[in-house]
Design goal:
Helices cover 34% and strands 18% of the residues. It has five helices and five strands; from the N terminus they run H-H-H-E-E-E-H-E-E-H.
């Protein structure tokens, strides 16, 4: 989108080379990226069957995450997981056996497909419950496993790669 100026009839209209460089708003840029992603999906439809299915699954399926949880932070948790652009599998979790489990409304444990990253999401009653639960259950704070919270959403991130732990914590910290 270019900035426009109304010219009086007595003024000379500048030529294209004289005009200021066009600026693009964030909304327009985001829409453009979305359109390009849609075009990419259309383009990959020209591949042979197994290859096309694999590409489509990698491009589309990783962004459709729905948690079977009833909590006010469910939508935010889904957004954070979608922002990671990973395909996750559900893992079993017996959160009711955790110490201070009365403060937990629900929980989900996920792992990416190559098992290099595990995320435990605890949906809590209150923001202050995270610290109490972490201390009661001796949750780790080492390079390869750390916990944090964002409001009443608590998350424990585990990976053999410390940078994966840090980057994942950054996503859940609210880099929306």
């Amino acid at each position: 989108m270019c900035a426009r100026k109304n010219w009086n009839s007595g003024q000379k209209k500048p030529q294209m080379a004289e005009m200021a460089a066009p600026t693009i708003s964030f909304a327009v840029l985001t829409t453009t990226i979305s359109v390009l992603r849609a075009q990419r999906v259309i383009e990959i439809g020209n591949h042979e069957e197994p290859e096309a299915n694999r590409i489509i699954e990698n491009c589309i399926m990783t962004t459709n995450i729905q948690l079977n949880v009833t909590h006010q932070d469910k939508t935010r948790a889904e957004y954070f997981l979608q922002a990671m652009n990973e395909h996750f599998e559900l893992l079993p979790i017996d959160w009711k056996s955790w110490k201070e489990s009365g403060r937990i409304v629900d929980a989900v444990r996920l792992s990416n497909t190559d098992k290099s990253l595990t995320i435990t999401l605890l949906f809590l009653e209150d923001y202050g419950d995270a610290e109490i639960i972490a201390k009661a259950n001796s949750l780790p704070t080492i390079d390869t496993a750390r916990w944090s919270n964002n409001g009443s959403l608590m998350f424990l991130v585990e990976s053999a790669e410390p940078y994966r732990v840090s980057s994942t914590l950054g996503v859940f910290a609210g880099n929306e």
